[in-house]
Amino acid sequence: MADIKGVLVDITRCVNCESCVVACRLYNGLEEGKNGAKETQAEKDKLVSNRWTVVQKVKVEKNGNAVRRYVKQQCLHCLEPACASACFSKALQKTPEGPVVYNEKLCVGCRYCFIACPFEIPTYEWDKSFPRVQKCQMCLARVADNQMPACASVCPTSAITFGKREDLLKEAKSRIAANPALYVDHIYGEKEAGGTSWLYLSDVPFEQLGFNTKVTHRPIPDYTWQVLKWTPYIFVGWGALLTGMYMYTKRRAEVHAEEEMYAPVDKEE
To answer: Is residue 93 domain-shared with residue 163, that is, in the same domain?
Structure first.
């Protein structure tokens, strides 16, 4: 865990250039737009199957004034991802480097990951004949080679910093300590859902920016496992019950057939 990679996003430094959005699209070969149609701003602010990161424009209040903040969003790559825990086909996996990646060859399209994710990140190719689950892969090939994800490599304001997660936590705490008047004393992702590989700093409360601040600090799989661990027993028990019902019904039918076969025949007077 000490060598796991992460990314620190400093919202106070984002200027909405959207270089990260373009870099993600180009590196991952994602099609621009939706079926060639021009998208509205509201559509551009949403994560969809062909857009793995967005910069949302959020109006907030600070010191009595209305201000705008720009919030980069993508998969947070949880340390103990609920999506991977819920994926019985193992199509979603947490890698040793940090990224949570998707293998379309193993996916059965159940979309349990949608329900499990506390951040509502995974999307789906609803318009495809053979749809896939889609989300940020955190540029695994680059990260494994100790290179920055594509989005971080093009950020002109250093709003996106790549490195070891533990080093990024130290950096985030150092920035808060050095300028407590600027930052709220909260590193989003340090503890949320058991911790995430993507961390955030902000000068306004995260709930104002649309972050899920009510998510548990306990890893989500700790909860899901309490249910999932009984699945094999439920499967076997349900199978035994159905088998028993089938045998009982079959035997009743056989007895009924035998009774009709040997029943006395009334002779006509």
So the answer is: yes
**The total number of structural domains that make up the chain:** 2
The DSSP call for residue 243 is: H
Alpha helices in the chain (DSSP H): 19-28, 41-44, 82-86, 112-116, 140-144, 150-153, 165-178, 220-228, 231-262
Structure tokens at 34: 């939706």
Residue 114 forms part of a structural domain:
yes
Q: What is this structure's pTM?
A: 0.81
Question: If DSSP codes are grouped into helix, strand and coil, which group holds residue 189?
Answer: coil
In a domain, 126, yes or no: yes
Domain hosting 241: range is 230-261
112: in domain: yes
Give the model confidence (pLDDT) of 72-115 as tens digits. 999 999 999 999 999 999 999 999 999 999 999 999 999 999 99
Instruction: Tell me, yes or no, whether 108 and 194 share the same domain.
Output: yes
Q: What is the identity of the amino acid at 185?
A: D
In whole angstroms, how far apart are CA 34 and each of 126, 132, 263? 12, 16, 73
Residue pair 76/198 in contact by the 8 Å Cβ criterion: yes
The answer to whether residues 201 and 169 belong to one domain is yes
The sign of the CA dihedral 86, 211, 125, 139 is negative
65-73 and 92-94 beta bridge pairing: unpaired
Residues 6+ apart with CB under 8 A from 141: none
Q: Specify whether the CB–CB gap between 92 and 81 falls below 8 A.
A: yes
